Amino acid sequence: MPSENSPLKHLRKKHDFLVAIDSDGSAFDSMEIKHKECFTPNTVKHWGLQPVSKYARAAAEFVNLYSKWRGLNRFPALIKTFDLLREWPDVRRRSGVIPQAQALRDWIARETRLSNAALRTEVDRTGDPVLRQALAWSEGVNASVEDIVKGVPPFPFVRESLQKVSQWADVLVCSATPGAALVREWDEHGLAPYVSVIAGQELGSKQEHLQMASEGRYDRNHVIMIGDALGDLKAAKENELLFFPINPGAEEESWERFLNEVSDLFYCGRYSAEFEAARIAEFETRLPATPPWQRG
Fold it and tell me: What is the pTM (predicted TM-score) of this model?
């Protein structure tokens, strides 16, 4: 669990409402460049997937961008990519050796803070070679992100939405991205002043972020999570909070709707269960569980 010294525990409530926003793919148009230019090349390099690189690329992009697993923490997403590759007949025919990474699976099962810092502690404790390999991969990803991902703007209407809601709501960045990258990106584009706390993977899961920030501070119907992934929806509903989706492929339209309609409904207490359910139903159709190569 997150530390008692977590900034989420000490969030200063200035307003009666809380708007929690995921970062990559929700506030910033950064998912494609991060996964296609940073995550996937490091996955091929660090896990020996060169013989099946085109399949590794397709599987990784499906998991991280175009499926129900979009937005999943990097470590479980890596395992899901391995599992899809292991099941893929084309990969088996090419004698592709896909890692089982059992030590990483075991660590994921027992650790809630799925971050480099927590993994480094486990590597130092156990010396496990698979965990060491996972850490080298994750640090390689971070180095690539820092080197490559620059000047990627927020989606249209994000800034205007923050300017609007920050007048009557506290704002929380709720993300599985490393905290340093989040601070860099929100500072780079001048959005950090609108935010009370920037919470990344080091502070726990998104469910924990929302729980620690909201519990005992805000009425449940005064908190809304904005996100582009089913994990964002799950984190909100585990805390019995409201949710508004940023539809993958229709991000600009989603933010325009939030700015001009949804923010007012939320503030006035008219963001109804029926309205929310319709938004979620549309959102879920965009995130399939079955990859294209299994659909026939």
Answer: 0.83
